[in-house]
Write a structure and sequence with these properties.
Elements: E1 18-26, H1 41-53, H2 55-62, E2 63-71, H3 72-83, H4 88-95
Antiparallel strand pairs: 1-2
């Protein structure tokens, strides 16, 4: 286990609270494939060439996983950030 907080670099001493965080982001697929008959294939091939040039980024767009260890303060800040995401339904109730 790491001896420092991944985010702030604070060293852990024996008995400190440390939090193991695992984040997985993966793309979703709704089962719909667009009609490719009407698309410009030249521009599609150009897009593919750009994607291949940055294949690492393309892979991260499909699946990304990170594991880290945080101190208590950084864990609370992460929790606050994630708690700031509101469900679409909650946002809609405030608008109307």
């Amino acid at each position: 286990m790491p001896d420092i907080c991944y985010r702030c670099g604070r060293p852990f001493v024996q008995g400190d609270s440390r939090y193991e965080i695992k984040v997985v982001m993966k793309s979703g697929f709704d089962g719909y494939l667009p009609d490719y008959q009407s698309q410009d294939f030249v521009s599609e091939f150009e897009k593919l060439e750009r994607i291949e040039a940055s294949s690492e980024r393309a892979e991260r767009d499909v699946y990304y996983e990170i594991e880290l260890v945080l101190c208590y303060r950084c864990r609370r800040e992460l929790e606050d950030i994630l708690g700031g995401f509101k469900k679409f339904e909650e946002v809609q109730k405030k608008v109307h």
